[in-house]
């Protein structure tokens, strides 16, 4: 028995010392992060001038400070004394021109934001906290037109958007049952709507209005909590957690990946676009380091930081794609980290994950709390496992195998619609001389021009109808003129996609019939 104990003890020491040795040889190569914007004024479909007199959806002082504090946290993590994260006396973001690592260097930092003021300001706020030397602080933040940002916005994912519309009535009925369980006394909801100046909106008829009233109250309450004003709303403060539970229930219906759901499997997890981009960044960094190990200026991929500033509707699908479906109520300023490390002993690459969140009230001084973000991986033999420590890593290829397990099974990807879904939106019709019957079909065909029409048809550039291809009399092949027309039609469709989507967006924002539609928040 004593011999067994001794052997186990020795094995334990060997295990621990091996892990420590392995940790010592891990060199940080690339930091990637994605975060929600900081606190903002509310988003409301009613009485906007009263609810947010200085403008709705705008970053406020508290939101700016949240991102500054996140930047300061990152500076401590990568440029400070954190040997558990970066085992070097030289700051990770140091360069030959700026050796202290406190100066923003556009050559090694790439930032991308959605095209909204609150996310753009949040991006620059984080960078300012990370690089406090304002003498050289001229940050570059890339963006694309909001309605075309398929990297950071799932709202413009055709499959997500259209199935959300098709499921809306069924899910509203389900959520109404949940809401009634949380708020059995409707007078409480009435009192909160009066406190928050939207009682006229909440007094409307129907399940849609009632559910959307609750969701709007939650949004206002979260904003007031961040401003330090929630205590003045007596009833709302008392039921703040119940309001949050309704929002979380809504999010948990739409954003996780369900491997038993045929639509989910066909289109893949909703965060695949951004996570695959991060994987691409990792492999680009590896290839670039191999080509230009001593001169970063010659590198194809010179970046040390890839930074994405977005919304809760971005980070929730990101979490789900990484296997963390339980993260469905991200607070303001929530940040997720993904580090790439190289083992200097054998040259292998590894991935590490963590998360951080700023305090949500003025009293918290927005101090940042770091915590574990579970890292799901799959070994070469198909065995899944999870890393549950802040310093834990898994091999890059194990991480990639897990991410790829939720790739789209349909070649249509985010354009996937089952035949019954196409029929439900009147988008399975071939031919026709006039315009399509609805903007949803326009939306689908404008974004998905290469797959929207069945074989033997092409997209008409003038009507967006699927037109039957004519053939020549020789061998039944499609004439070159028709092929050219099809190419032009496809290009035309892509070029004018935003125009048609703008129509759709206007319709969504109009909240027809009192329906609540989540647009990046």
From TrEMBL:
GO terms for molecular function: phosphatase activity. CDD domains: HP_HAP_like (cd07061). Keywords: Hydrolase, Membrane, Signal, Transmembrane, Transmembrane helix. InterPro entries: Acid_Pase_AS, His_Pase_clade-2, His_PPase_superfam, Histidine_acid_phosphatase. The chain crosses the membrane at residues 482-502. It comes from the Eukaryota. Residues 1-22 form the signal peptide. PANTHER family: 2-PHOSPHOXYLOSE PHOSPHATASE 1, ACID PHOSPHATASE-RELATED. Belongs to the histidine acid phosphatase family. This is Membrane-bound acid phosphatase 2, putative. It comes from Bodo saltans (Flagellated protozoan). The lineage of its organism: Eukaryota, Discoba, Euglenozoa, Kinetoplastea, Metakinetoplastina.
